[in-house]
Amino acid sequence: MHFLLRHPDYISEKPSGETFETDDDSSFKFKIHQTYDLDTTSDNYYRKLPQSIIAVYFWMLGRWDQLENWNFWPITVLSIIASILLVFIMQNMLIAFMTGVFDETKSNVKQAVLKFRADLIAEYEAIEKPFGNTRGNPR
Protein backbone atom coordinates (compact mmCIF):
# COMPACT_ATOMS: atom_id res chain seq x y z
CA MET A 1 0.00 0.00 0.00
CA HIS A 2 2.84 2.35 0.78
CA PHE A 3 4.42 1.97 -2.65
CA LEU A 4 1.08 2.17 -4.40
CA LEU A 5 -0.40 5.18 -2.63
CA ARG A 6 2.68 7.15 -1.61
CA HIS A 7 2.35 9.30 -4.73
CA PRO A 8 -1.25 8.95 -5.92
CA ASP A 9 -0.67 11.40 -8.78
CA TYR A 10 1.69 8.85 -10.41
CA ILE A 11 -1.19 6.42 -10.85
CA SER A 12 -3.69 9.15 -11.80
CA GLU A 13 -5.56 8.76 -8.55
CA LYS A 14 -6.92 11.92 -7.02
CA PRO A 15 -9.36 11.96 -4.11
CA SER A 16 -12.43 14.00 -4.76
CA GLY A 17 -13.36 16.77 -2.38
CA GLU A 18 -17.10 16.58 -2.13
CA THR A 19 -19.13 19.74 -1.86
CA PHE A 20 -22.13 19.79 0.41
CA GLU A 21 -24.85 22.42 0.35
CA THR A 22 -27.64 22.99 2.80
CA ASP A 23 -31.18 22.70 1.55
CA ASP A 24 -33.48 24.42 3.99
CA ASP A 25 -35.74 27.44 4.10
CA SER A 26 -33.38 29.66 6.05
CA SER A 27 -31.68 32.60 4.42
CA PHE A 28 -28.25 31.24 5.32
CA LYS A 29 -26.70 29.33 2.47
CA PHE A 30 -23.29 27.84 2.91
CA LYS A 31 -21.10 25.23 1.27
CA ILE A 32 -18.76 22.74 2.85
CA HIS A 33 -15.84 21.83 0.64
CA GLN A 34 -13.37 19.17 1.64
CA THR A 35 -9.82 19.55 0.38
CA TYR A 36 -7.04 17.02 0.48
CA ASP A 37 -3.35 17.69 0.84
CA LEU A 38 -1.77 14.49 -0.41
CA ASP A 39 1.69 15.48 0.82
CA THR A 40 0.72 15.24 4.50
CA THR A 41 0.22 12.03 6.41
CA SER A 42 -3.00 13.31 7.95
CA ASP A 43 -4.74 13.11 4.56
CA ASN A 44 -2.60 10.40 2.96
CA TYR A 45 -1.74 7.68 5.47
CA TYR A 46 0.49 5.98 2.93
CA ARG A 47 2.83 8.90 2.36
CA LYS A 48 5.44 7.56 4.80
CA LEU A 49 6.29 3.89 5.32
CA PRO A 50 5.88 3.75 9.13
CA GLN A 51 2.50 5.48 8.94
CA SER A 52 1.33 3.12 6.20
CA ILE A 53 2.36 0.08 8.26
CA ILE A 54 0.40 1.44 11.21
CA ALA A 55 -2.63 2.16 9.01
CA VAL A 56 -2.65 -1.36 7.58
CA TYR A 57 -2.16 -2.83 11.07
CA PHE A 58 -5.18 -0.95 12.38
CA TRP A 59 -7.27 -2.21 9.46
CA MET A 60 -7.28 -5.56 11.26
CA LEU A 61 -8.76 -4.01 14.40
CA GLY A 62 -10.95 -1.41 12.76
CA ARG A 63 -9.97 2.19 12.25
CA TRP A 64 -9.15 3.86 15.56
CA ASP A 65 -10.19 7.48 15.26
CA GLN A 66 -8.64 8.50 18.57
CA LEU A 67 -5.21 8.04 17.01
CA GLU A 68 -6.04 10.59 14.33
CA ASN A 69 -7.34 13.14 16.79
CA TRP A 70 -4.36 13.07 19.12
CA ASN A 71 -1.59 12.73 16.53
CA PHE A 72 0.86 12.04 19.35
CA TRP A 73 3.43 9.26 18.92
CA PRO A 74 3.29 7.82 22.47
CA ILE A 75 -0.42 7.11 22.02
CA THR A 76 0.27 5.25 18.79
CA VAL A 77 3.06 3.21 20.41
CA LEU A 78 0.90 2.49 23.46
CA SER A 79 -2.02 1.40 21.26
CA ILE A 80 0.15 -1.01 19.26
CA ILE A 81 1.79 -2.50 22.37
CA ALA A 82 -1.54 -2.77 24.19
CA SER A 83 -3.25 -4.50 21.27
CA ILE A 84 -0.41 -7.03 20.91
CA LEU A 85 -0.26 -7.69 24.66
CA LEU A 86 -4.03 -8.03 24.88
CA VAL A 87 -4.06 -10.73 22.20
CA PHE A 88 -1.08 -12.46 23.83
CA ILE A 89 -2.66 -12.44 27.30
CA MET A 90 -6.04 -13.64 26.02
CA GLN A 91 -4.44 -16.51 24.11
CA ASN A 92 -2.48 -17.56 27.20
CA MET A 93 -5.66 -17.45 29.29
CA LEU A 94 -7.42 -19.69 26.76
CA ILE A 95 -4.49 -22.13 26.74
CA ALA A 96 -4.43 -22.23 30.57
CA PHE A 97 -8.18 -22.81 30.73
CA MET A 98 -8.06 -25.63 28.17
CA THR A 99 -5.07 -27.22 29.95
CA GLY A 100 -6.96 -27.19 33.25
CA VAL A 101 -10.01 -28.80 31.66
CA PHE A 102 -7.85 -31.44 29.97
CA ASP A 103 -6.00 -32.30 33.20
CA GLU A 104 -9.26 -32.56 35.15
CA THR A 105 -10.75 -34.82 32.49
CA LYS A 106 -7.62 -36.95 32.41
CA SER A 107 -7.76 -37.50 36.18
CA ASN A 108 -11.44 -38.49 36.08
CA VAL A 109 -11.24 -40.76 33.04
CA LYS A 110 -10.05 -43.87 34.93
CA GLN A 111 -12.93 -43.62 37.39
CA ALA A 112 -15.38 -43.17 34.52
CA VAL A 113 -14.05 -46.25 32.69
CA LEU A 114 -14.26 -48.40 35.82
CA LYS A 115 -17.81 -47.20 36.52
CA PHE A 116 -18.83 -47.96 32.94
CA ARG A 117 -17.37 -51.48 33.21
CA ALA A 118 -19.13 -52.09 36.54
CA ASP A 119 -22.46 -50.92 35.08
CA LEU A 120 -21.98 -53.18 32.07
CA ILE A 121 -21.22 -56.20 34.27
CA ALA A 122 -24.19 -55.45 36.54
CA GLU A 123 -26.49 -55.15 33.54
CA TYR A 124 -25.19 -58.41 32.05
CA GLU A 125 -25.68 -60.26 35.35
CA ALA A 126 -29.22 -58.94 35.68
CA ILE A 127 -30.34 -60.38 32.33
CA GLU A 128 -32.55 -63.46 32.74
CA LYS A 129 -31.61 -66.63 30.99
CA PRO A 130 -33.06 -66.52 27.49
CA PHE A 131 -35.04 -69.33 25.85
CA GLY A 132 -35.69 -71.22 29.09
CA ASN A 133 -32.18 -72.49 29.67
CA THR A 134 -32.49 -74.78 32.69
CA ARG A 135 -28.95 -76.15 32.91
CA GLY A 136 -27.76 -73.39 35.13
CA ASN A 137 -25.37 -70.62 34.56
CA PRO A 138 -22.55 -71.73 32.24
CA ARG A 139 -20.35 -68.89 33.37
UniProtKB/TrEMBL annotation:
Keyword presence, Membrane: yes
Keywords: Membrane, Transmembrane, Transmembrane helix
Name listed for the protein in its UniProt record: Ion transport domain-containing protein
Keyword set includes Transmembrane helix: yes
Transmembrane portions of the chain: 70-89
Species this protein is from: Rhizophagus irregularis
